[in-house]
Amino acid sequence: MTSKSVSLQYVTAVLNSALFKCCFRDNFPELLGNTYELSKIFFEKIPLKKPTVQQSALLSPLVEIIQHAKSRKMEIPAVTIEGVIDGLICQLYFPDHMQEKQIDILQFVEQDLAEVMQNRDFDQLPDSEKENIINQLHARWTHPDSEVRNRIKLFAVRSPDILKPILESR
Fold it and tell me: pTM for the complete prediction?
């Protein structure tokens, strides 16, 4: 995949995901003092999958939202949103597996994000409205009736060989 075809938000989402942390731990040599050797040869071992238009359209605003949440020290909502981004990255890499196990979340995240954002550009909103959106997403994705929350909770149970080790690497 060429660098021109990858958005910065997508790369940010992948490099900050539990999946990448798992790959990082397994593919980068550990040096003294719990540091790692960051060489091009090791980065080339980690495949960047090209996201669909739908996945890219979800990841871009979610990365902006998480960056804003962290800049405002909204730690609890940030953890929730990071979990959703991790789930979307896992679905990017294991789409058939997640669908087969009925733990795919993309359509539900898309629906929730559309309802909360109401066709607005997150980057163009005043800070108070950005924080309102962050809180609304957090409330949705922590509610006991949330399909996103409930499917994420099933990741490790329904996918003990693939998703559980990835999520434990966080």
Answer: 0.86
